[in-house]
Amino acid sequence: MSLAAADSGDIHRYTPEEVDNFHNDNVESSELQLPSITPSIPRSFRGTFVMVPPEKLQRVLVASAKGFSIGAGIKGGLALFAILARFARKKPPRKEIVLTNGEVIVSALKETLRYGLFLGTFAGTFVSMDELIAALGGHRRTARWRALLAGAVAGQSMLLTGLEAQHTSLAIYILMRASVLASRCGIKSKRFGRICKPLTWKHGDIFLMCLSSSQILSAYILKQESLPASYKSFLNKHGGKDAVILQGVKDIASGMPFSNLDAIKKYYKTMGVDVKLDPNMKVPCSIVHGNQSCGDHIISFLIQAYKRALPVYLPVYLIPALIVHRKGLLIRPITILRKSLIGTARSSLFLSVYCASAWMWTCFLFRIFKRCNVPMVAMGTFPTGLALAIEKKSRRIEISLYCLARAIESFFTCIADAGYLPQSRTIKRADVVVFSLSTAIIMHCYAQEREVFRSKYLNVLDWVFGVPPPPFETPRCKDS
């Protein structure tokens, strides 16, 4: 009996004594030898079962944990402010479904956990797909499209926020962010530079705000159901007008007979004002501001609007100052607090001027043309967006994109209700499709076009996902 082994093309034949010695050594090296019943594995499949490297598994777990902390932190913070506002409110608003404090807290905890899982799963899925594709297809060969595909797959995690709940506003806003990044890539591209050149317009953010205001404020007066519930509540608070007044303006703009003139008179009587309303009026100024002149109304409204805006922006500026600049507060507290207070005053002025100018421009046009209709409302609310010039340049694009997302959602809701978008042709969970497309673009830009991001966003993405290595390097290995 003899065995043969191939080594560098030479055949070595083992003697029976060598075979016995080899067998005895194996027996002595183990406590118990059992007959082998494992089928032989073909040589082509040997070595294909590889354990996941610990550093890659750690990257997935860390990204998931950081994504969860961001989602839960943001949603939990908003829920906390809502709960505190509820406790500070003495009486619930009219027509509000009364919930106990315990039910509100439980609901807030569920939403916080749900959004934490959403962002945690998104981060973990993206990193997992990024590592998987790189392992299967090669880091260099897949560098151009790997983040695009991983971002699209990770976008499906939006379903964790609720299988039935639609998040159209969030999806459209992320799409706007992706469009901005794509346009920045196009501007620096030799092929698309000329096409994207108009996007470099200095005051393009203000123009977008004017377009958004025309749709949003027209919907606020004429079709509030086309706006998201939270945004509608925000507008009703800062718009400063009761629902009966808005209904009166809607009736006259739509060319319908008045349905609530008596209710408008009762509303003004509760404020100590006796208003005379003509059923044949062509201009709704007496409905909007009673016996006040247009000029007096704008001044008084501006003062009241500023008082309403201050509580909105105080936490927006002070809380980041306490968290982000907590070390600097010990060194230069006066400087940081002064900047926060100036930012609060400036943003509050923007919001109050924005709301006051909406009524100013509409009254101005109504008086000039002696009529009130839907086109007049749209035209009167367009220049309202000029108030954005009060804000800092760095905040303008953020605000204009936020409002543009809600304007687009409201616009398509209006045309769908008008019958131009039949329900049979609408896509179920179109928000997930739009969100996945947007995250694919964003993550592709993050991996390939990092310079199009602002530094503060890039720092957050790097903290969650880890800085992506250049395409020509092997990722996260000791040699690189």
TrEMBL record:
Entry GO terms, CC: endomembrane system
**Main location as per UniProt:** membrane
Q: Where in the cell is it found?
A: Endomembrane system
Membrane spanning residue stretches: 348-368
The Transmembrane protein 135 N-terminal domain covers which part of the protein?
A: 293-413
Query: How does the protein associate with the membrane?
Result: Multi-pass membrane protein
Q: Known InterPro entries for this protein?
A: Tmem135, TMEM135_N
Could you tell me which Pfam families the record lists for this protein?
A: TMEM135_C_rich
Alphabetized, the UniProt keywords read:
Membrane, Transmembrane, Transmembrane helix
Q: Which family does it belong to?
A: Belongs to the TMEM135 family.
Entry-linked PANTHER family: TRANSMEMBRANE PROTEIN 135, TRANSMEMBRANE PROTEIN 135-RELATED
Q: What name does UniProt use for this protein?
A: Uncharacterized protein LOC101513213 isoform X1
